[in-house]
Amino acid sequence: MTRPKGAKRIFEIIPGALSWMIIISLIYLSFVQPLVCAVLIITFDFYWILRTVYLTLLLVLAHHRLSRQKGKDWLKVCCALPLENGWESLQQLVIFPICHEGLEVLRPSLEALSLSHYPLEKIIVVLAFEARNSQAKSNALILEQEFSAKFGAFLSTFHPDGLAGESRTKGANATWSAKAAKVFLDSRRVDYAKVLVSCFDADTCVDVEYFGCLSYHFLTSAKPHQASYQPMPVYNNNIWQAPSFARLVEISGSFCQMIESMRLEKFITFSSHSMSFKTLVEVDYWPTNMISDDSVIYWKGFLHFNGDYRVIPLYITVSMDVAYGNNIWRTMLVQYKQKRRWAWGVENFPFIVMGFTENKKIPFIKKIRRSFHLLESHVTWAVWAVILVVIGPLPILFGGAFFSQMAIAYNLPKITGLLFRFTVLTSLTWIFLSWTILPPRPKGVSWFKHVLLILEWFFVPFIILILGSAPALDAQTRLMLAKYMEFNPTLKGNKVL
Amino acid sequence: MQQYNFLTEAAFERIRRILFYFCLLVFFLGLPFILTFALGYKFNYQSLKFVKTGLIYIKTQPEGAKVYINGKLFSQKSPTSIQELLPGVYKIVLELAAHYPWKAEVDVEAGKVSRIDKVIFFPLRPVLEQLNREKFSSFRIDLKRKLIYYLDQEKKVVYRSNFDASNFEDIASLPEYFSPIDNWNISPDEKKFFIYNAHQIAVLTFDLGSNDEYLATPVFLDYDQEKITNVFWHSDSYHLVVLTNKYIQVIEARALARPINLVELNKENAMASYDQEQDLLFFGDSQIPADNGSYNNLYKLELSANSYLFDKFIKGKVND
Question: In degrees to the nearest 10, what's the CA dihedral of A344, A349, A351, A355?
């Protein structure tokens, strides 16, 4: 990726610069103005506790919505809709961008798809292979033989390597396959407005009711083409086999997504998602040179429809693999890289700010709010654990003799400790909810694993240190220094490191 | 979708907004209270003003002492902190049963912590235990703080016991004709000891069942022409550092050994202290400059195994 010039480069620098400025300023203050630093830390601690309580309440609400809609016969609900809605006319285009995932990952995804409680003849499956993958052709052949008869259509595409203007990203592959699907749809004279495209990670196993749920929301939403549809990602495929460390991180990731689904003004697409194919074509597909294609596609829609574009949460799950290695260190590394890739979503900031400067039709206030939300969320992600864990004790340690005599020096650890005792309640809530979203315990897995699932939450303080802020700070620093990341898909399924 | 949901999308959004603004309200109302408390402020309901207070932090050894402030019993026992105290002087009494009480007047300043964290309670009836089982003239404690050595000048015997007075045993006999004994000390390896008087040093081995015949033989070092003022063990447990009225010497603890004069002293009975860990001898000596005045100087003599350091020091002192 070449380094952009001018304003875009400045907006690439801003998030990282802001995060580092906050961290360095607080460290500096802890030495020269420990009193000011202590006041700021107490303020941040209080803010963080209230934020945690607030987000936990949102999680409870989201969980309530998810559990209430669990097992609902969405197709029946679709059938009950007035005839003019016409769910029967909808086609489902399902794209699986595949980098190096093998049959052991792809088969379960296709099997789950084939079990959908939805007319399979209305489902067009596209396996989007990378041509550089030596196993691509043979895998395509095997999977076509096994599954092509089950669906309405079954395509395999092979994305050539090194096309002009492209980076090695999932978005480039997905776009190539979507264009191939467009040719296919054109050949059958299918109206794009009647096609819903779902771009799933290769390990995504959909709920049997997913397409019914998607169709229902699409048909009943106002301006359905001006929306993306976001299911709740859970990592249940191999959660009973995964080590506790990785399991905990992924459950937390699912919860964060559920919380976001309750904040519609901030909600953006993440990982596996769906949208109108008409809209996808109009916005010129997924970005071909950005890693965070899943969120950028939302922003492309937002810019294309002049700010009148939203993400509709689907309270139905899509299940993926927990990423882990064959020992705790490799698992940490795998998780760290995955979180860094997610945090690379900070590249959206320069993208949307540049888009906002060009688009004069989006209300100014909306531009400011959305830019601020994005910037604030990424900066907070990068600094919160550093402030709580690293900077918190600094005024006491380095404040000097004068500061240590002050009442605030004595009260700082007491107040911090008291505030964090409140988080015990929120932690208990998270533990309970994590237990409820688990799939049934497979045969051969000890009941003791249930106990472990609760005990593993005591690892949270250690995980915060490693995966709290560090990946986000790493990603922002890379963007700030124009050390652009390459797409490095997480190894999943049986392909543990 | 509404027909399938008890709560509609709009209802969820309303609940979310209520939660958000409630948390925002708690933040902006709660933060001033938390910060003022952290900074040591107290709201005075009579004057309706914030008053800056101080606090006293109390930590004792052992813990659990009753705390009296200006004669009133405080609700908590040590360790504790007494917060929101208006600036001024407070009488603090700490009491622990069967121990001497601790009393003091503590000055509390606004916004500051007065720390009383070095209180040790000493028992009213001290724990006293007799360790020796025989008469003795003097005793030494070994470097590892595990053994006690007793010397009995009358019986000419050295005893040893553990710190808890167990294993009391007779471990050496003193030469009959060596008298008087001005001082004595145990070697760092705890296999032998020296005794000395003004003109003789004897190095004796403990009777610990060792087969080392070389060490078992007593060594006598005579100082006919000089007067011995102090003797120290070198860390190798073989050399002795000897201060006489004229010199600082090192001498091997073997028969017929000849001393090396390291430093010539101007002053008799020079003060000295020996650091066995680093083999450093600190000693005082007088300097007589041209104006016939007299100055006392303190010197450090390095006696570690690196012998070149001896030369360096001697040259340095000569140059002085």
Answer: 160
**More confident of the two residues A124 and B213:** A124
The helix (H) or strand (E) run that includes residue A471 is helix A470-480
Q: For chain B, which residues score pLDDT lower than 50?
A: 1-4, 213-214, 316-320
Element containing residue A461 per DSSP (H, E): helix A460-463
Alpha helices in A168-317 (DSSP H): 170-187, 210-220, 244-260, 277-282, 293-304
Complete DSSP assignment for B91-133: EEEEE-TTB--EEEEEEE-TTBEEEEEEEEPPBSS-------S
Which residue shows structure tokens 């964090």? Answer: A420
C-alpha A275, offset from chain centre: 16
Nearest to A7 by CA among A415, A354, A446: A354
Determine how many CB atoms are found less than 10 A away from the CB of residue A497: 13
Could you tell me if B298 lies within 8 Å of chain A, comparing CB atoms? no
User: Measured between CB atoms, which of B5, B39, B115 is closest to A408?
Assistant: B39
**Domain boundaries along the sequence of chain A:** 7-65+368-480, 73-367
CB A421 within 8 A of CB A429: no
The answer to whether A279 and A193 have CB atoms below 8 angstroms apart is no
Phi and psi torsions of A334, nearest 5°:
-60, -45
* Amino acid in the structure at residue B34: I
DSSP single-letter state for residue B226: S
Q: What is the CATH number of domain A73-367?
A: 3.90.550.10
CB atoms within 10 A of CB B85: 20
Q: Which residues contact A249 (CB under 8 A, 6 or more apart)?
A: A335, A339, A463, A467
d(CA A481, CA A483): 5
CA distance B73 to chain A (A): 23
With CA atoms as reference, report the closest residue to A315 among A381, A374, A377, A267.
Answer: A267
Residues in a beta bridge with B82: B56
Spatial contact of A35 and A408, defined as CB atoms under 8 Å apart: yes
A110, A151 in Cβ contact below 8 A? no
Closest CA to B97 of B59, B126, B70, B64: B64
What's the farthest any 2 CA atoms get from each other in chain A?
Answer: 80
* Bond preceding residue A243 cis, omega within 30 of 0: no
Instruction: Note the pLDDT of residue B311.
Output: 58
Instruction: Give the position of tokens 């191939």.
Output: A180
Between A and B, how many residue pairs show a Cβ–Cβ distance under 8 A? 76
pLDDT tens for A368-407 read 999 999 999 999 999 998 998 889 889 988 888 888 888 8
Query: Would an 8 Å CB–CB cutoff place B30 in contact with chain A?
Result: yes
Q: Judge whether A67 is closer than 8 Å to chain B, CB to CB.
A: no
Of A42, A54, A407, the CB nearest to B34: A42
Nearest CA to A302 among A244, A240, A370, A245? Answer: A370
Per-residue pLDDT at A423: 78
Report DSSP state, residue A195.
E
Distance CA A213, CA A185 (A): 23
Q: Are B240 and B259 in contact (CB under 8 A)?
A: no
Strand, coil or helix: what is A197? strand
Do the Cβ atoms of A375 and A16 come closer than 8 Å?
no
Neighbours of A67 (CB within 10 A): 13
CA distance A468 to A380: 10
